[in-house]
Amino acid sequence: MITVNNVYKLFDGKEILHDVSAKFYSGKTNLIIGQSGSGKTVLMKCIVGLLRPDKGQICYDGRDVMAMTQAQTKALRNEIGMLFQGSALFDSETVLGNVMFPLRMFTHDSYAACKKRAEFCLERVNLKGVNDLYPSEISGGMQKRVAIARAIALNPKYLFCDEPNSGLDPKTSILIDELLSDITREYNMTTIINTHDMNSVIGIGENIVFINKGYREWVGNKNKIFTSSNEALNDFVFATRLFKEVKGYMIEEYRKQEATEEK
């Protein structure tokens, strides 16, 4: 579990995050949502260590990041996997070479051992027969799965995903969501996903943190989001007519479910 306690972040005197606290649980898909400029990306960068908060505390399973030595910080980074928005694959490396890269860079395993682990990770994300192809020779959805395979190659305890469905069609987006959800449960990882995709929110939002204008505005899950009275959240999630209709339908289904459980 990752806990964020009373975090502040300023840029040029302007407050981007104000007293943000949140918990991100192991074995669950944790989503950070919010409008562009809300501070959600800054929050994720603070959590992963790309930015240092001006005030507050960030703990990985009780370990205070702000109090870590350089050696402890380096050790923690080996427990972290990253899935970047644009996949960030190396064009000059094959699919297999891309997944092997962190293994060869950060372990002392033999080439054969790295290759075996990379092949296992590619099979885990349902990719076969593409090991010798280059990123330009496969689809965007396949590239994203290669990036996921690379992110889990070192068997991380913590997985960070920045807009994993960016640029993907709806069907492929659902497949990526389901894959991230499955491997999160399978490896009991603390997975944090920064997303604008409302299909992801409704589909895999087990723990959702809504950031609005630098404040933690709301926390809940994909069921509670339909009955929330938070106006800013409703404006963000149900901005379109389609989602407003979906909300009405889901509220009715949620109430029916509650009534059945009471009986």
Structure characterization notes:
It comes from Barnesiella viscericola DSM 18177. Residues 2-238 form the ABC transporter domain. This is Phosphonate ABC transporter ATP-binding protein. The protein has 263 residues and is an alpha/beta fold. The protein has 2 domains: 2-79 and 156-226, Rossmann fold; 97-155. Helix content is 41%, strand content 23%. It contains 9 helices and 10 strands. The protein has helices spanning 40-48, 70-77, 95-106, 111-124, 140-151, 170-187, 198-204, 231-237, 241-262, and strands at 2-11, 14-24, 29-33, 55-60, 63-64, 80-83, 158-162, 190-194, 207-212, 215-220. The protein has a 6-stranded mixed β-sheet with strand order 6-7-8-3-9-10. Helix 6 (170-187) links the parallel strand 7 (158-162) and strand 8 (190-194). Helix 3 packs across helix 4 (111-124) and helix 6 (170-187) packs parallel to helix 7 (198-204). The radius of gyration is 19 Å and the shape is globular.
Topology:
Layout: E1 2-11, E2 14-24, E3 29-33, H1 40-48, E4 55-60, E5 63-64, H2 70-77, E6 80-83, H3 95-106, H4 111-124, H5 140-151, E7 158-162, H6 170-187, E8 190-194, H7 198-204, E9 207-212, E10 215-220, H8 231-237, H9 241-262
Parallel strand pairs: 3-8, 3-9, 6-7, 7-8
Antiparallel strand pairs: 1-2, 1-4, 4-5, 9-10
Helix pairs in contact: 3-4, 3-5, 4-5, 5-6, 6-7
Question: What tags apply to this protein structure?
Answer:
six-stranded mixed β-sheet, alpha/beta, 41% helix, four-stranded antiparallel β-sheet, globular, Rossmann fold, 2 domains, 10 strands, 263 residues
